[in-house]
Automatic annotation (TrEMBL):
Signal sequence residues: none
Name used for this protein in its record: Glucose-6-phosphate dehydrogenase assembly protein OpcA
Region (Disordered): 310-350
Protein origin, superkingdom: Bacteria
Residues annotated as domain Glucose-6-phosphate dehydrogenase assembly protein OpcA C-terminal: 170-299
Cited PANTHER family: OXPP CYCLE PROTEIN OPCA-RELATED
Limits of the Glucose-6-phosphate dehydrogenase assembly protein OpcA N-terminal domain: 51-165
Ranges of biased composition (kind: Low complexity): 310-320, 330-342
Amino acid sequence: MKIDLTETTSSKINAALVQARRDIGTPAIGMVLTLVIVTDEENAYDALKSANDASHEHPSRIIVVIKRASRSPRSRRDARLDAEVRVGADAGTGETVVLRLHGELVNHAQSVVLPLLLPDAPVVVWWPDGAPPNLAGDPLGALGQRRISDTYASENPQQALGERAAAYAPGDTDLSWTRITPWRSMLAAALDQQSLKVASVVVEGEDENPSCELLAMWLADRLQVPVRRTASDGPGLTSVRLETKDGDIVLDRADGSLATLCMPGQPDRAVALKRRDTAELLAEELRRLDPDNTFEAALKFGVSKLTAPAPAAAEAEVAPTDSPETVTGPKADAAPAKPAAKPSKKASAK
């Protein structure tokens, strides 16, 4: 069932939701959370489709906030709220409210969303694209216990990672981090099977891919070894090499779906490591509502290394390869500068 409301208010939207539930014969609310999606018209369809798919695992009230840019000064002064209410088969396993904010109301979206939140239920705010630098400081972000962004959709992913680290607050997360969950699980399991000391790591993947950077920072933070980041044609992450004195542990995925795990003294094995769609990533993030301390540690570990130019010592270390690289880890720190030579007595006399 769909109900269109033009020039409406939050109270009328709530009344429409109650009436729609009665009309379809489900007056009780069986949803576990409120998911607020902040997006634009271009990305609203894909974001709502992913949220509806994720609602089969997490029944929720989905509130889509679309801020409509006004073209003329007069229309920018006029505030108007249009809404579309969906329940039943048109809204997954929960209910959906699509809000279109016009004029001055764009700057007060939180006042429209607040009355529509489910009582005594957690709130998750998701920006599929165009996330603010400070998620918790955003008026809509302040409503949520969890705030989800996606730096992969940013024009400059590395800069976006730096902004996320600088303004991190408990509850922040990113889908670029969620994308590497299978990689982290596979690598952790491989190290549990081998009593080998890792000396260095090489992470290979698409250039400007924030998932590759996050995986490199996580490995450098957890293993406390030098981690070198190399570029490939993708798709996404393609290879991780853990270098040890007894042989390398290699997890290689060239086609984006099936990977090969190579370990010293063991036969190579094929493992499923397919690239997941947005609905699967969102469903994973909705499973936990507590702060992700591991993400925080990885995010804050290498921000300065991602933004600062590579030191000369690190450049010399990776010079044999032709592809652009970013180096993280303890070895990437520049060596202390040698003290300047003291001037000779003759020079002082001059």
